[in-house]
């Protein structure tokens, strides 16, 4: 199995099925956990020196920080519902508790924090949704903690890609600290597939092919992208969802397209203009 792929485990005593740390991934910034909690099950933790974004992927929960509480948070019951999620942002030096009130799929997104921003409940209306691409390159993006809201390090978004379509495509990368042309951001992809027995393909490759891996990713698998281009393809019959977590030296997403495939962008723009 590829070192860039983490398959989901059975839930441990805390309900955790994924646990990506900077040490396990061999990088510096991004941490990611996924949990499947039963009704009444509680998760409590401290953020320490990290900022955390809790994303309620599916289900409802009572949430609490050190001095605030929210009851019965959540609306959607599947990541494939056409609605944005609820999330909770927590700065460094905080504590949080999540108590599932229904079956709950929860993502815990982490990156270095300075404690510069307050605890914030992110409601669906605060997210930014858009559709990108045309034809078999169309996908639906929702920015949860991105340009829509400030943070120290974290960038969090989710993408739904219809059956038979490509996403994170044409291939792009963000592994070089060279603003304003490109920024260095590590990234995780938490994949969900509908129906669940399906799979998607994700390739991660660099210009010099020092990294060049193509993975078949099953439901709730995580792909780690330390660098390079990283397109995703959804086979016919299976819709794709993934949650992206990014962080790096600066909180700025500037990507660089693979020059071999950049012609697709111009061709799509020309086609869209003809259709419009």
UniProtKB/TrEMBL annotation:
It comes from the Bacteria. InterPro entries: Deoxy-glucuronate_isom_IolB (IPR024203), KduI/IolB_isomerase (IPR021120), RmlC-like_jellyroll (IPR014710), RmlC_Cupin_sf (IPR011051). Its EC number is 5.3.1.30. Keywords: Isomerase. GO terms for molecular function: 5-deoxy-D-glucuronate isomerase activity; glucuronate isomerase activity. One of its GO terms (biological process) is inositol catabolic process. This is 5-deoxy-glucuronate isomerase. It comes from Parathalassolituus penaei. The gene is iolB.
